[in-house]
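Batch manifest, entry 17 of 40.
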Amino acid sequence: MMRVKRFASFELTVTVTRVEVVLMQQLLSNSESLRSAMIKDQIMARGIQDKNVLESMQKIPRELFVSAECRAQAYQDKALPVGPGQTISQPFIVAYMSQMLMLSPGQRVLEIGTGTGYQTAILSRMGAQVFTIELDDQLLRAAQQRLNALGLADGVMFRSGDGTKLFNDLAPFDRIIVTAGSQELPEELVGQLMCGGLMLIPVGRGKTQMMLRIRLRDGVRVEQPLMACRFVPLV
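Output type: structure tokens
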């Protein structure tokens, strides 16, 4: 059965079964309450308190950022596949990274790894000026359509290509967020961080990485380990 679902000003055309149609209808009708439950049970329960983060995640419909076959799982406490070698992070990780950025409205944020655009949308909703990079051009264009439809794209610049170099011309940045695991800390990115700035990046050579928060203070780099995590590799 073919169904065309319209969300704001864009369309998603997917082939679904009758059962999946019912599940998606239930999801869309209960979206706001599901977001409230997600925030209470998965995010606030784990210590996320930043009001701007919580309000932004309440406003952004996560189901628009996952693949059609995973839409009924949009608010579950897990990462979901969105394409070959790509995932959308679990809600808690998105909230955690957003809070640990210590973001103020108007700050310039370099995001490495747009993916489907969910983290991008949260940062834009929080008032950041976002410069986002995605290697997969098709994924990037779909993310841009979603943010356009939600009225969040005006403060976002989208580019496709090498994430460590593509915004060199607009550096330095107040914040840098990397949503893929790097085997080592990329010095090219550290060099794009403003003095007094902050970067979040998962670093590690195995399946599990360590989330690092990098700060530049008076020309001195301070590395703070935050938590173990698992991200797809940075390429």
